[in-house]
């Protein structure tokens, strides 16, 4: 069987329930590791270095960029955010399936650098349901909800570039489905190469 | 949810247990239909037209070729064998996942014509186990077994062209795994296009 893990990007509309799904996967199954982003922004209250983010100085971040130490990165509002390569690779080597919760631009950069990456897009069953969920949070103003719906409209254009679309209607069922999709990726030739080579050698010897 | 079925090719070494796996899938789950091949060879004792094969005259078979009525075909020992397109397409349209049990050359032809096809390759856990299974049948001469092992050696070269490799160590586990891989294929953007389009339209209307 394959020993190396699968790199998984989980994207989806804001309000699709990605965060809860990822939390659910990590707590239900022991084959997952969550990638931790590196950022140059200051920690907010309660944020712990190495748990929520790896907090870094601008010059350290830029050195990582120069050394190709990040799988992807972006600059928002004058702060860098990126995915450190070494942590992801260590986890993959140790057999963990590594989850990255990032959005479409980042997802495409990861896929370009690591073509074996599995890209999953999570959607609610309908746009109406998405709006109800955003409203149901009770924390966003009508203006913010409106902005998120517009953003969802833009994001929906890139959905075909993902490998799999998962509908988050029932949380448990959706978690199970994502888990199955990720397990299935272990059966690709790429992950079965060791076994294939071994059988080939054996067959030649007969 | 997607309504159209997935076309699945199952190939594998002779002795890997494909036949039993396919039988198991068909009897355990109700989402499968088995593609029936068309052939110009004469029926053997006990073979029923429309069950084991669609038996056809040479001129009828050649008309099917001319009309692009076959997804793939080949000529062995002066007899044609092929996969009728209409039956497969009807079953896919009706939502069935259609299983084709064919070998690598046929698999590649199907993939070329219908790129959405899922290619699965079944292997025993080792070449030694493959040999034991062939010997265990007790029906083949040493010479035939030798030929099959040589053929397996050739076949093993094409394995990377498959989408998934499945190890048939435990029959029930392997059946379950194949079923999961096929269900997972229903989550590709291609199979979720209707939902995606619907959400896009809804999002634009907000």
* CATH class value of one domain in chain A: Alpha Beta
Please name the fourth-level CATH homologous superfamily of one domain in chain A.
P-loop containing nucleotide triphosphate hydrolases
What kind of assembly state do the chains in view correspond to? homodimer
- Give a quick account of the main beta sheet of chain A: strands, pairing sense, barrel closure: 5 strands, parallel
Secondary structure: helix percent of chain A = 40-55%
Q: What order do the SSEs of chain A take from the amino end to the carboxyl end, as H and E?
A: EHEEEHEEHEHEHHEHH
Task: Label the structural class of chain A.
Answer: alpha/beta
Percent of sequence in beta strands of chain A: 15-25%
Structure notes:
- Two copies of one chain form a homodimer.
- Chain A is α/β, with parallel strands linked by helices and 206 residues long.
- Chain A has a domain at 7-35 and 96-205: P-loop containing nucleotide triphosphate hydrolases (Rossmann fold, 3-Layer(aba) Sandwich), CATH 3.40.50.300.
- Chain A is 46% helix and 20% strand.
- In chain A, strands 2-7-1-8-9 form a five-stranded parallel beta sheet, sandwiched between helices. A four-stranded mixed beta sheet of chain A has the order 4-3-6-5.
- In chain A, helix 1 (18-28) packs across helix 7 (171-184).
- The longest helix of chain A has 17 residues, at 189-205.
- Chain A is globular, with a radius of gyration of 19 Å.
- Chain A starts with 6 loop residues before the first strand and ends with a helix.
- The model of chain A has no long low-confidence stretch (mean pLDDT 93).
- The A-B interface holds A 1, 123, 125-128, 131, 146, 149-150, 152-153, 156-157, 159-160, 162-167, 177, 180-181, 183-184, 187-189, 192, 195-196, 198-200, 202-206 and B 1, 123, 125-128, 131, 146, 149-150, 152-153, 156-157, 159-160, 162-167, 177, 180-181, 183-184, 187-189, 192, 195-196, 198-200, 202-206.
